[in-house]
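Notes continue from the previous slide.

Worked example: a multi-chain complex. Inputs as given:
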Amino acid sequence: MLRLILGRLIGGVFVLFVVATVSFFLLHAAKGGPFDSDRAVPEAVQRNIEERYHLNDPLWKQYVTHMERVATLDFGHSMKRQKSVKEMIAEHGPKSLRLGLMAMVFAAIFGTALGVTAAARRNTWVDYTLMVIALLGISIPSLVLGPMFIRWFSLGLGWFPPARAEDFSGYVLPALVLGMIYAGTVARLARAGVLDTLSQDYVRTARAKGLTERVVVWKHALRLGIIPVITYLGPATAALISGSFVVEKIFQIPGLGFYFVGSVSDRDYPVLTGLLVFYVAFLVLLNLVVDILYGVIDPRTRGAR
Amino acid sequence: MAERPHSPWRDAWRRLRKNRIAVAMGVIFLSILAFCWLGPIVAGWFGLDATTIDIALGATPPSLDHPFGTDLLGRDMLVRVMIGGRIAILVAFVATSVALVIGVTWGAIAAYAGGNVDYVMMRIVDALYGFPTVVFVIVVMSVFELRSLVALFALIGSISWLNMARQTRGQVMSLRHREFVEAARATGVAPARVLFRHIVPNAMGVIIVAATAGLPSVMLTEAFLSFLGLGVQAPLASWGTLLTEGSSQISVYSWVLIGPGVVMGLTIMALNFLGDGLRDALDPQTRKD
């Protein structure tokens, strides 16, 4: 277990190193910069800007400075806003995190409930109906679902604010939209996983002991059948973070995704690289957590690998 | 390959045909292809096209003249959806082909080389798997101001090959010590040829399944990039572009979103079901129920 964690951490640091390096050279090779504008800038101002952001240093020196900053998690100041990258992460990160967690909880609970119920009633109309719901969830793009939800539930029924979430109720619609596609996939994985385990010996033993079908399915079969879902949740969160750009934009939630997209079009390099490295570090940790959970839930994988 | 009575392709075809849902979804998908490629021609007979602007008409709800309504500029939404579908489907197929080439090559080489090469190559796949790859596409596209369709194909393709590589590797692993491979090797066939002429064709079933399953997410990626203003550029329009337009007008003109949204959702659903059906037909070992 310890070896696994250590190995993953080393791998993660390596990935971060590659990401920081690639993003540095990518941005360096880019046309145009954050201070390009149509108006002519006085030479002195131009010189000051270049000085301040070390734009005139030789490339290797800029690279070393960049990597030092990444290593100390100090990404410097935004070139467009009066804030440091750290402040931006501290201010807007929690909003994205909240949205992502709500979406994930919704997807995990709703999806598992759907999938396990379908597996328990396999090949009945209940099963088919639930699976069609799951597939609809997967198939409707958030670009469609988001605006439709706003129209129906915010503008039509007035249940939730349409944009600029402040409190819990403001996050409900975006979280549902964001989580829907994952809920569908979770439902399919949970169904398949539980169906797989239902035919295993230990489930037969549980049945033979005289346990009710409900206990057999929801306690015994679910425990092993849920593993594909947990494996999926790691990469799903990766996708969820990049997917939340769209949802944050539709619902005008000032989360990190919102600013990340902004930093790309603004050429706000410190913010861009800072958020990129932050995202990747976050994901590396997340995948590690998933691996550990894996060992907790299925003792057979402990010590393996 | 169809002449031999017990060709695996023929067996698979028979299994697929028996799967009523898969057949229905296949028919739906073919209809959507016809809708997008033949539809505009038919609509032309009724005097509809995607470009005629009629400001005086403006946005009108669906009617007999314009079954999907019209957009703000008075353009017919039905034909716009058809034309947008051509681009969306084209991007999906070409980008998936790019992913297919990268993924199959990567997975096949990893499995065939084995040992440390395999280990390193698959760890790279693992690392990329937990990585917000779309983020990199956003950065590359906007930083280099890439706005062409070719760039879109290449970039979406270059992030969509991971699953393909894993599937191919698994399949090649199980094939590489089979008799026909040993036989080919014994007769002195070069390794690259053994791999790509003898092993990979036999892994085609799994590869096709992975490609079909990947199409919907590629489609969504395109829509997503268009939404951020990085995808297909005007005057071309894809479903992603239409959805973006529609989503900004949802509070007033819902049909501008509903038309393309329903057709795109239907396409993705058909592809998802078709992917399931193909997996059951081509890859019987992984059948889930």
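Summary box: The CA atoms of residues 56 and 131 of chain B lie 49 Å apart. Chain B touches chain A through 43 residues (CB under 8 Å).
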